[in-house]
What we know:
CATH topology: TIM Barrel
Number of helices: 14
Mean pLDDT: 97
Strand content: 5-15%
Strand order of the largest sheet: 4-5-6-7-8-9
Number of strands: 9
CATH superfamily: Metal-dependent hydrolases
Low-confidence stretches: none
Largest sheet: 6 strands, parallel
Bound molecules: zinc ion
Distance between the termini: 20 Å
CATH class: Alpha Beta
Amino acid sequence: MVSKIALEEHFLCPGFEKYWAATVSGVAPDALQRITARLSDFGDGRIEAMDKAGIAKAVLSLAGPGVQVEPDRATAVRMAAGANDYLAKELQKSPDRYAGFGHLAMHDATAAADELERCMGDLGFSGAMINGHTNGQYLDHPALAPFWERAAALHAPIYIHPTDPVTPSPVLDGYPALRRATWEWGFETGSHALRLVFGGVFARFPEAKVILGHLGETLPYLLWRFDSRAKLYGVELPRPPSSYIKSNIYVTTSGMFSAEPLACAIAALGHDRVMFSSDYPFESPEEAGSFMDLVMLSQDVRADIAFNNARRILKL
Length: 316
Ligand code: ZN
């Protein structure tokens, strides 16, 4: 079993259930109870699941959407700081097994930058996870430039986690099974990342680092097309879109335990930009782990994706 670091592993802390409830509407009560118990556990249950999957260290993040859906700015800032303090205390109990991503209120660019700095400094976190748009505002918004400036200066990886779109797309009407994790979130989150690319955020802040789950939310598959259409539509960027995706975006295997998209991500981005994740407790860490152990890769590449890349990129 190859030793692993996992990056999209969630927890829930008191006070955030109300934000989280919408994400799990429609989930059967017994399954919901099981998931909630796992999210709230930082002890034996989680460690046992990690051990079975060969996960040496899990980078924990709040289950979304968190304060990304909080309408009040001051409440969002206060709640996010509270979640980070809560996580920091839990990390102290098992520092060898856990690391953390901060939770940020993107309602206020400077407050978010300050909190990111506190997370990376005082709290010892490895970056932040942002659960998609904040009340409809995406991360390319010009008001967020001070945030990206600080994130780039801190070399902080910013993991963009899927969330519901602002307006459900009519093409999925009548097909609830295609909403959310099946298809809707991939399009939403891939589009969010493309706003950063096409909006010139990476051109302005070359040191900015973004992580996407689900092996890149389909972006690695479409690099050629982004470049070809950007030319056709006269997109003004110093470099082709694919070049920013290859230099500023990293991807994880969360919820995508499948050889074909892994091969595509490696071919498109390079194996040093791909990292292991399971998406605990929404996916089985054992399935994620055994995929990582058995998928056809050289032992060097397997070790890099499972462990070494995360250690280098997150400075663990
Ligand atoms: Zn997740």
